[in-house]
Amino acid sequence: MKNKIDSILTTTLQHCFNNGKLNQTPLPDYTVEIPNHSDHGHFATNLPLTLAPSQKRRPTEIAQIIVDHLMDSEDILLKVDIAGPGFINFTIRTEQWHKCLAQIIALKDDYGRSRQGNGEKVLVEYVSANPTGPLHLGHGRGAALGDTLCRILAYCDYRVTREFYINDAGRQIQLLGESIYSRWKQMSNRNHPFPENAYHGDYIVELAKEISNQTDLDGLTQDQAIAHCAKLGKEKMLQEIKRDLADFGMTFDVWYSETDLFSSGLLDKSIETIKGTGYLYEKDGAIWIKTSELGDDKDRVIKKSDGEFTYFASDISYHLEKWKRGFSKAINIWGADHHGYVQRMKGALKANGIGEEWLTVLLIQLVKLWKGGQELKMSKRAGQFVTLRELMDEVGVDAARFVFLSKNHDSPLDFDIDLAKKHDSDNPVYYVQYAHARICSIFRKAEEEGISLTQDPKTVLERLILNEEMALIRSMAEFPSLLETICIVFEPHRLTYYLTELASLFHKYFNLGMKVPENRIICGDSSLSLARLFLADAIRIVLYNGLTLLGIHAPERM
RNA sequence: GCGCUCAUAGCUCAGUUGGAUAGAGUGACGGACUACGAAUCCGUAGGUCGCAGGUUCGAAUCCUGCUGGGCGCACCA
């Protein structure tokens, strides 16, 4: 609908240019939006205001010209007003809204889909946890964000690749091996020392048991045993991570291993490529990249004087590989503690001629866990953290995902585990799910009464005239453009807010029937009942589609 | 110290990328089931959008400075 207003405006403007009512100028950056106040109509545009400087006329004058020449070929407008300093307010004919509703019902599961992505290839890399321990809450937030974003992007015709970068090279894995080895040693000798900065979690003990059962560690040298523990530990952790994520409702297309970068020689090749750019130099026996000339605060080492590559080196290589794979856009979801890393990554890409808009890094802020009114401090190294698995077991996947997407990724999240655990109305996810279940219940009731939606909606929808009914339709009409917006700003939390709002409109509408039976959906008047059932069906469709994009179930009963 | 980021109702947060009179949830108080599901709804109360300037028709939103939180500043990953 918004698009229709927009096209009316552009054709009108063109018309005014052609007949000389307005001076031919480039199209200004105007907006068409839904006003905050109902007396401002269904849509409002600031076009006259944005046109004023180039036309050198007063906005209200321009507004009058536009309104006088409005090209409403489909006759969708009921009322057009000029208001305030130069806004134009549009009110849409009720029949048009009824058409919108009919379209939702016709499209069903596809309502909300769009062509906006145009088949563009997008890579989303998320979670990417080190396989040195179970996934924790922070990973859960990144996972929920990434997965939902991917679902929405795919729905809007982006060709999405979901990728998990496995940080399986370097110190962390070595440390994992040492940790497991020490725990194994401690099984026979309580006093065997445990490395200071090693992983303390109980899962290490479990791994030590499993691995020592499978392998005769006594038959190996210490170094061999540690290497073996590292390798098996890593594999087992990765399996667990995959299982956790699958149970959390998501799958990945690519598991990209850092060690593969080394073994395949890609890393060396990438470094060679960068050398050609002239951004590398040697100093103090190390190789540096001049990121300071590319937006970073200082130059960075990519190969240490001991001959080893830094983590940054493999990360550059990894991103160059992403680029070569032909994605028109890459999105990374990182913990906010890595934000200092963004500029250097973009700098390194720039050195290779890759524009900085190619890579978008979404930073997710800390998740604080509350239980019993107290904050639970988490620390992976100290082995004290709540795992994603524990969270899923305690609060359920639906509630966890909903809470993770209940705030902008950019703001810290307080996860109140007691609240999310409650299977009652305090828990926000139930509000939306209940709306869906309630509608399903109405349909069960309708079936009992022998009412079914077999006829053409168009024959009865004109019976929908209540303000609450129109508000519902208008809200649902926004759904497709909401999804398009999310694809541009990468903020899936808007969907949770939207669904809560839609559920709220429905609950309000439903409650009209509490006191006034004529306002019920099944109300005694057969064509009106049908019309309202069609409306309810559309709401169910939108709630279902929205919840599915969030990876949350839309239950028929609760 | 430098950089990034955030600051909106008692609390937790939205705010359609600059629009008209700033909104939800929660908490507090008061109401609505003989009923399509009360896991719901209605009402009341609650604000100098951290502070001060600037940009313009118009600022919670943009620019500058300040204050206060978070995070980052390794030849670690």
What is the beta-strand fraction? 5-15%
Second rung of CATH, namely the architecture of the domain at 98-115 and 427-550: Orthogonal Bundle
Reported by name, the CATH topology of the domain at 98-115 and 427-550 is Isoleucyl-tRNA Synthetase, Domain 1
* Strand arrangement across the biggest beta sheet: 7-6-5-11-12
Could you tell me the number of beta strands? Answer: 15
Given as residue ranges, the uncertain stretches (5+ residues, pLDDT < 50) are none
Gross morphology is: flat
Number of helices: 19
Description of the structure:
The protein has 558 residues and is an alpha/beta fold. The protein has helices spanning 2-18, 47-55, 59-68, 94-107, 137-155, 171-188, 202-214, 222-247, 258-263, 266-275, 311-324, 342-351, 388-395, 397-404, 417-421, 428-448, 467-489, 493-515, 526-550, and strands spanning 32-33, 43-45, 77-83, 87-92, 121-125, 159-166, 254-257, 280-283, 286-289, 300-303, 329-335, 359-364, 367-371, 374-376, 413-416. Among the domains are: 2-92, 2-Layer Sandwich (Gyrase A, domain 2), CATH 3.30.1360.70; 98-115 and 427-550, Isoleucyl-tRNA Synthetase, Domain 1; 171-247, no CATH class; 367-421, no CATH class. The protein is built from 19 helices and 15 strands. Helix 7 (202-214) crosses helix 8 and helix 17 runs antiparallel to helix 18 (493-515). The radius of gyration is 29 Å and the shape is flat. The chain binds one RNA strand of 77 nucleotides through strand 9, strand 10, strand 15, helix 16 and helix 17.
Task: Describe this protein with a few key phrases.
Isoleucyl-tRNA Synthetase, Domain 1, 558 residues, alpha/beta, 19 helices, five-stranded parallel beta sheet, RNA-binding, Gyrase A, domain 2
